[in-house]
Write a structure and sequence with these properties.
The complex is a heterodimer of chains A (119) and B (290). Chain A is of the alpha/beta class. Chain A contains 3 helices and 6 strands; from the N terminus they run E-E-E-H-E-H-E-H-E. Helices cover 26% and strands 24% of the residues of chain A. In chain A, helix 1 runs parallel beside helix 2. Classes of the chains: A alpha/beta (119), B alpha/beta (290). Chains A and B meet through helix 1 and helix 2 of A and strand 4 of B.
């Protein structure tokens, strides 16, 4: 299973970015190989529709689960449609998030956060 | 550089004066409404996200028209889920999940590219209502405003429609704050720009941004200092350094604030009426359109 985490950097010591669609990188954790990789968020510098563009990127990467703080309405709807589960975390390091996930400490995101419309 | 710079020439005796500010809350609407009456000009509220000029002018015989925008309609029987339209959309208005194309209509800019790239003739367009345009009269002057529907993120189509059919004669355009697309699209229809600011660091900071934008369009400009306080000359000093004409200073006072807060025009106060008459005189000197 592939997990995508919104991140401020590419290392496991970097913190999670609280913003899903405007984060710099997505760190992808593969639960089978236990390997961590990273990919640049294509939507970070988009003028508008960042939620849609970043969610599309995650869907196209074949991700099964997303970890962020909140997820905006457009991305939330797309993840629901694609059957991708969303979990919420505080802005701790990626390594700590993986640990918390493995312990089952992260809660599900059950509603969309507010829309930001380009900001 | 901004493409398609405005090279507006004054046609059909139609002169458009744009009122902008940079910072919000400096008094664009106060200046626009009071100047429109003083100059005997039509008033056009282009701040379609929060138009408030009608509170002060209270125009009569209002006629309302709806403004429509197009959005793509995907024929599920014809769509094969190739994803070409999703990739082509510059505005992220389309997404694809499990070969199904999903539309985010509020993000659509009606550019037509999705229909253009579709090899299966699966995309047509439909209209939806984005907002309205109100038109009424104050004495013999035309007052218009655009009103964007709540929750809509995109104001430009309403501004374009609003400025398409302007009256001959003198029009005062009351802009949105900032230097966004909304302001840029209003500037495309502007012959002269009046920048309203206040003597604060924030006012000056955002004024500089607005000056930069107006200069990019080669539009003649002047500044009005609202809420002017004796001895606070930061705006005047900046204008002097930049060679920008100061068209007038509107004093900060409790009586003005009280009049404003009850929806009254400042020109109902004799001392302010005189100030607006002086500003109007100066405008005619600085922007000769006759």
């Amino acid at each position: 299973m592939k997990i995508a985490i919104s991140a401020t950097g590419e290392n496991k010591t970097d913190l999670m970015d609280s913003r899903f669609a405007r984060c710099a990188f997505f760190q992808i954790y593969d639960t089978e190989t236990r390997e961590l990789s990273s990919v640049k968020n294509v939507a970070q510098d988009q003028e508008g529709g960042a939620g849609v563009a970043s969610a599309q990127q995650i869907i196209d990467l074949g991700v099964n689960l997303v970890i962020s703080w909140k997820v905006g309405p457009n991305a939330y709807g797309l993840f629901k449609k694609a059957g991708i589960k969303m979990l919420t975390s505080d802005c701790i390091s990626i390594a700590e998030i993986i640990e918390a996930y493995n312990k089952g400490d992260l809660k599900e995101i059950e509603e969309a956060g507010p829309a930001h419309h380009g900001s | 550089m901004v493409p398609n710079k405005s090279n507006l020439t004054i046609k059909d005796n139609k002169v458009n004066i744009g009122i902008l500010s940079g910072k919000g809350g400096t008094g664009k609407t106060t200046v626009s409404t009071n100047l429109a009456v003083t100059l005997n000009a039509n008033y056009i509220d282009c701040d379609v996200e929060e138009p408030n000029g009608f509170i002060f002018l209270d125009p009569k015989d209002i006629k309302t028209e709806q403004v429509y925008v197009n959005y793509p309609l995907i024929d599920k029987n014809k769509c094969v889920g190739c994803g070409k339209c999703v990739k082509a959309c510059e505005f992220n208005a389309l997404a694809m999940v499990n070969k199904e194309v999903l539309l985010f209509e509020q993000l659509c800019h009606d550019c037509g590219v999705c229909q253009y790239v579709c090899d299966y003739d699966a995309i047509t367009y439909q209209e939806r209502v984005l907002g309205i345009i109100d038109e009424g009269t104050y004495n013999n002057l035309t007052c218009k405003r655009g009103v964007l529907n709540i929750g809509e993120p995109m104001a430009v189509p309403i501004i374009k429609e609003l400025l398409k059919g302007l009256e001959n004669g003198l029009n005062i355009l009351d802009f949105a704050p900032g230097t966004s697309c909304n302001v840029v699209n209003s500037l495309l229809n502007t012959n002269f720009a009046i920048l309203v600011t206040e003597p604060t660091e924030f006012g000056l900071h955002d004024l500089k941004m607005a000056v930069q934008l107006v200069r990019e369009f080669n539009i003649p400009l002047g500044v009005i200092v609202n809420k002017h306080i004796e001895g606070e000359n930061m705006v005047r000093d900046y204008c002097k350094d930049e060679g920008i004409v100061v068209l007038g200073e509107i004093p900060y006072s409790k009586v003005a604030a009280e009049a404003y807060s009850t929806g009254k025009m400042l020109i109902e106060l004799p001392e302010y009426k005189k100030i607006f008459e002086e500003i109007a005189k100066k405008i005619k000197e600085v922007f000769p359109w006759n």
